[in-house]
Specification:
This protein has 283 residues and is mainly alpha-helical. It contains 10 helices and 6 strands.
Amino acid sequence: MKLTLALSLLLPAVVAHAADKPASGPRASFSGHGENVRHFIQAHDLDGDGAIDRAEFERFRRQRFEATDLDRDGAISLPEYVTEFDARLDEMLKPELAAIDGMTRTRFSALAGGGSHVTRERYDASGARIYAAYAADKLPTALPAADGRRRLLDLPTTHSRNGLMALYDRNSDSHLAREEFDTARAEQFERTDVNRDGRIGFDEYATEYGERIERARHDLNVRAIRQTRVRFGVLDKNRDDRVDWGEYMASGQRLFDGNDRNGDGRVDATDATHPPKPRTGAN
C-alpha cells in the first residue's frame, strides 16, 4: 500500500491538480544519511565535483522545496511533504527490489538443482540442512548489510537465527523445535504449491516471496507514516501546519553543518576523516 494512500486515511487529500503531478527535482535521497559524509555528497552534489559548498547546497534545497510545493503556494503542507517523501522512498527501493529479484532467481535455481521445479524431496532436504545449521548453532544472529547500509525492507532469511525465528517460530518462544520447524515448512510448501502438483515452479516460488515483500513494504509504510509526521513537525517551527522556505532551509542548514565536520564551509571527503557532530533536526 502506498504511503500517500495510507496517510489519506488520516489527512485531507492534496488538491486535485497537485495529486496528479509527480514530484520532480533533485535526485532521490533518504533521511538517515546526515552523519555519513559520502552519502550526503552523493545525494546533494549537483555539479558532480565531489564537494558541496553552501551555495550549491542551497540550490539543491531550493529545487527540492519547489518540487515538493506541488500547489505552488510558497509553503509545503503535510500531504505534499508525504507525497514527495513517498516518491523518494520508491526511488530508494528500486535497486533493493532489483537485487531481491536477482537473488530470488538464484535461490530458486539452487533449490531446484538447476531444474524447472523444486520437488518436495529437494525442499525437505534443504529444510533439513537449514535446521541442522540452527541446531549446531552455526547461524549468525543476524546478517550484516553487504555495503554497511541497513536495508529498507526487513525480509527475514533462513541464513540467520533471527530470520528463522521470524519465519518459523509460531509460538514466539525464541526457540525452534524440530516439529515446529517441520510443520511450518510443510505449510509453506503447500501454500506455495498453488496448482497442487506436488512441486514448486518459479512463478509459484516468486509469487509466495512477492507476498512477503508486500507485507514488508506495508510495515515500511507504517513506519514511514510515523516518521514523516515527526519530521514535518520538526520542520514546522511556528506550528501553522505549513513549512515555508525559511523553515525548510534552516533545517537544511543544520544538516549541512553536521556534515561540514571541519567547519570550512564545504563538505568533501576530508570531512569523513573527522568525527561526526551530534545530529539534530530533520530534512
